[in-house]
Amino acid sequence: MFGARLERTRYWAAVWARRRQGDDAHAVTLKRRRIYILPTRFGIIFGATVFAMLLGSLNYGASLGFALTFLLAGLGLVTMQHCHNNLLAMTVRFAGADPVFAGEEARFRISLQNTAAAPRLDLVADCDHTHDGPVDIASGATAALHLHLSTTSRGWVRLSRFSVSTRHPGNLFRAWTWVHMDARCLVYPRPTPPGRPLPAGSDAIGTHSTVTQEEDDFVGLRDAVLGDPPRRLAWKAFARSDRLMVKQFAGGAERPCLFDWNDLPDLGDEEKLSQLSRWCLDAADARQSFGLVLPDQKIPLGNSDRHLHDCLQALALYGVSE
Amino acid sequence: MRPIARNTSGLLRLVWTAGTVVGASLPHWTSLPSWMPVLLCVCVGWRFAARGLRWPLPARWLMWLLTIAAFGLVLLQFRTINGLVPGTALLVVMVSLKFLEARSQRDHILLTVIAYFLVFASLLAGGGLIKGLYVLGFVWITTLGLLQVGRQGPLMANLPTAKLAGRLLIQSVPIMILLFLLFPRLPGPLWALPGDTSSGATGLSGSMSPGDLTNLGLSDEIAFRVEFTGQTPAASELYWRGPVLSMFDGRAWTQLAGMRRRVEDTVEYLGNESQYRVMLEPDGRGWAFALEMPETWTDGGQGRSIRMGSDYQLRVFPPGTNRGRVTYSVTSQSRFRAAEPLTEGEIELFSRLPRDSNPRTRALVEGLLDGAPTAEAIIERGLDVFRQPDFFYTLTPPPLGEHTADEFIFETREGFCEHYASAFAIMMRMAGLPTRVVTGYQGGELNSIGEYYIIRQTNAHAWTEVWTPDDGWIRVDPISAVAPERIALGSTRSNFQGQTTIASRIGRMQWLRQAALAWDTVNTLWNDWVIGYGPRLQRTLLEWLGFDRPHWRVLLLMTSAATVFTMAALAFYLGLRRHRGNGRDSAARSFEQFKRKLKRLRVDPIRLGETPSTYADRARTALPDAAESINDITAAYTAARYEPDPSGDALARLRSLVSKFSSGYAPG
Predict the structure, then answer these.
(1) Which of A269-276's residues contact partners 24+ apart within 8 Å by CB, and which partners?
(2) DSSP assignment of B85-111, as one string?
(3) In this predicted model, what pLDDT tens digit does every residue of B23-70 receive, in sequence order?
(4) Which residue, among B179, B181, B458, B564, would best test binding to A if mutated, counting the most A CBs under 10 Å from its CB?
(5) Which DSSP letter does residue B610 get?
């Protein structure tokens, strides 16, 4: 019951902070009014101890007891200031998140830049279920922290809120700031397991094809050696077997293909997207040119990494409103 | 700060915690049973062996068993866990066992906080300058330990952390001074801790044997409070009369049992009247204190009457009923004649001494009786004995043997009021004068807040009464012969303790004596101004600041406001510090200064997109004379700004070059 109440308090505090802070740009320099601070449980124990010392001093009228009590009370307050200062004027940036496939963990990069003269110590980034750190940042340096969010479905996964906090010095206080950035990570559809063969190159795309075919047909894999072109590396196979392999081609022309939404009438929408993702990946693995036809858009043939990303993004965001 | 590799962090954490725990318990070692330090050392050693040599740690059930056993042992030894020493003992034992199983960061931080408390507890028993310095040093080390064990990442290098700890403490000092001076000091304890006022503490017991006490502790426990209406008597007149000790067996003075006669009517009051209300602390002993000599008094409230015994002492009737608070009003006159007529038998009773005791004192007294002096002259001659220069007042006298007066007068010559009163009473009885010892309290402390006097156990006192046929009982206080300042101040403070003893021990060695005196002066200052800073000094300070006895709530508010102000100042200072001295920024600032100097020499300001080196090219063309300086400055700037400069050499060079760069170059 107590835990639930705490949870609720946290929730309302977060809502309140969001309302008073508003949204953040992609880089924020922390100002005083957005740094929150509360004692940790050790801070509370420390405070209770100092209070007990005060009572003891009063009771015994011990002057040196008072002196030590007040020194430690001062220490607590000074520690609070330092803890607060450990965050003050630090720049927090959302430094991007690489797209992932649904089911994988999205990895948000948070960069912390210390422009102050003193080092900043013990900085932790966390959001609801994940944290990274602690990390120390020397004067003038920048550090990166990573927050992981699990993904279940394609589209955008958002890191709507995260906090950057510190307990330095002495772990008596925890100062933190809540950051609400438009931090999002693209999630590609989860590719269907391999199985369905690539559709045969259709006549229709012949006219679009401007690529000269130099590569031969894909015949198999061999172990990679230093100097192999990175484009030939079989990443999917690597993911499955942990062995880095290179695709071998047996000559002959690459058959450009256009993957069409309408070619998969037997599947539901999500399965279609998954299957199209699979094909895109396979085609890219095979260094084939490919294009994509979706009900609302059409992506012409291509075979660059950028093209693959464009196709997967189109699949990821199909039907997703901003 | 350079972090230390993670695998040694655990060990270092242990080292820090061990250091703080042992250091915190060190001041207690002398007052604790000797098995406790041993237990602590064994636990610390075991824990390190477990870490380094992979010794097994005790299992959970064994830990519980050890805890219960240790708790029982403490209880057995002290019969209580309430009170300073038993509480400390329990804490030390628990810390020892906790250290044995310290694993998580939580354990380490808890132990560090307890270490703070332990060292605090050692201050409750009082402390001199040395102890203050020890505690200060220890607090620094403990804070360093707290920073280390409180770290979330791997531990930091020790030296910069030590500096950080020092900085934190130095920044706490203003707050400490502020609170120390302004935080309202309440005169008197909040609650009484049983066990702390047992044997050895000054206080009244209804009997006394001065030869047995060798270390008179000072209990600040309150005996009673007094509120005067109208004129307050001088401190030297504040003799609060308590039990009168008339029987002496050679070792102990005890009270005379039974009622001899009513004596209220025998007192002749001669003036100097004072009216006051007394609030007794409950102690169940039935003594009602009043200034000598009470003339009229009310009852004690709640059906308790107050009567005067045949030794002029007020008592609560029925006895044993002042467990609750007894309050009564008294009118006393400090000038009086207590002319009780004594019978022959009573004269003999009040002059009785054990046979063959104190032969040297007897010889001394016979000398005093030369020329058949009057009673007054005998008293003066007796006091003169204590006026010899090497009689000292001390709370830590050496023990006395069989002939207490002999040893005290001829050998040790150190003691507190009881030694003097007893020796003097023995001398007077030897001279044939009926004499008795009166115990009670002398002086009192004015409470600045509530406008009343507090009489504590530290005010406990013993003096004598000598009977003469003409004047009856005359009060003679031998302490006024040896430590008159004690009477004038109306309070005994611990700064009398030991100070004269050192001087007397060292005796004839002149330079050592000088050093001892200098040290003593420092100690006395410390005692007067730091240890002695209490309600009274606080009130003086506040009056000096222009506040006339503010209510404690007002004082608390003032203290809070001042603390907030100090914190704001600290925040401002820390903000300044944070932005000052950044290597790269400072280099840029120095270069700005250089550019301003060049601008004054008519070099066009740096243009958008121009690098420092192309700008320097232009400057060199404009000022051919200064070409070399310009080159040096540009090189130093590039080094300070863009290259690693951990030592700050490049920055220092840049600064000195820029400041030396003269504006006197002529444009070419």
Answers:
(1) A269/A319, A270/A154, A270/A189, A271/A192, A273/A154, A273/A189, A273/A315, A273/A318, A274/A189, A274/A190, A274/A191, A274/A192, A275/A192, A275/A196, A276/A189, A276/A315
(2) HHHHHHHHHHHHHHHHT--SHHHHHHH
(3) 888 888 887 888 888 989 999 998 888 888 888 888 888 888 988 988
(4) B179
(5) -
**Chain B residues near residue A174 by CB distance under 8 angstroms:** none
B116 exposed, middle or buried (CB, 10 Å; 0-12, 13-18, 19+)? buried
Domain residue spans of chain A: 2-188, 203-213+253-316
Of the residues A33, A51, A78, the best mutation for testing chain B's interface (the one with the most B CB atoms within 10 Å of its CB) is A78
CB contact under 8 A, A71 and B189: no
**For residue B580, how many other CB atoms are within 10 A of its CB?**
12
Measured between beta carbons, the chain A residues lying within 8 angstroms of B124 are 56-57, 60, 62, 65
SS (H, E, C) chain A: CHHHHHHHHHHHHHHHHHHHHCCCCCEEECCHHHCEEEECHHHHHHHHHHHHHHHHHHHHCCHHHHHHHHHHHHHHHHHHHHHHHCCCCCEEEEEEECCEECCCEEEEEEEEECCCCCCEEEEEEEECCEEEEEEEECCCCEEEEEEEEECCCCEEEEECCEEEEECCCCCCEEEEEEECCCEEEEEECCCCCCCCCCCCCCHHHHCCCCCCCCCCCEEEEEECCCCCCHHHECHHHHHHHCCCEEEEECCCCCCCEEEEHHHCCCCCHHHHHHHHHHHHHHHHHCCCCEEEECCCCEEEEECCHHHHHHHHHHHHCCCCCC
The average confidence (pLDDT) of chain A is 81
Q: Is B417 a catalytic residue?
A: yes
Confidence (pLDDT) at A44: 96
- Among B114, B303, B459, B627, smallest CA distance to A45 is for B114
Contact A79 B570 (CB under 8 A): no
- A81 in reach of chain B (CB within 8 A): yes
Closest CA to B126 of B57, B225, B31: B31
Q: Check if A172 contacts B (Cβ < 8 Å).
A: yes
Kindly report the average pLDDT of chain B as a whole number.
79
Cβ separation B152–A64 shorter than 8 A: no
pLDDT at B97 > cutoff 60: yes
ipTM for the assembly: 0.77
**Residue of B104, B172, B186, B528 to mutate, testing the A interface (most A Cβ within 10 Å of its Cβ):** B172
A65 contacts B168? CB cut-off 8 A: no
Distance (Å) from the alpha carbon of A160 to chain B's nearest alpha carbon: 26
Which is the catalytic residue, given B461, B528, B548, B617? B461
pLDDT at res. B320: 55
Inter-chain residue contact A64 with B123, CB threshold 8 Å: yes
Catalytic residue (choose from B477, B617, B632, B649): B477
Q: What is the pLDDT of residues A23-46, one digit of tens each?
A: 888 888 888 888 999 999 999 999
- Determine the residue of chain A that is closest to B138 in CA distance: A68
Q: Which of B647, B615, B642, B645 is nearest to B631 (CA)?
A: B615
- The pLDDT of residue A174 is 94
In sequence order, the β-bridge partners of residue A36 are A176
Bridge partners (DSSP) listed for residue B296: B331
Six token digits for residue A257: 């293909």
Q: Please indicate whether residue B477 is annotated as part of the active site.
A: yes
The active-site residue, picked from B417, B471, B520, B548, is B417
Contact B575 A85 (CB under 8 A): yes
Reported as a single tens digit per residue, the pLDDT across A124-181 is 998 877 888 788 888 778 888 999 988 888 888 888 888 999 998 889 999 999 998 8
Q: What is the CA radius of gyration of chain A?
A: 28
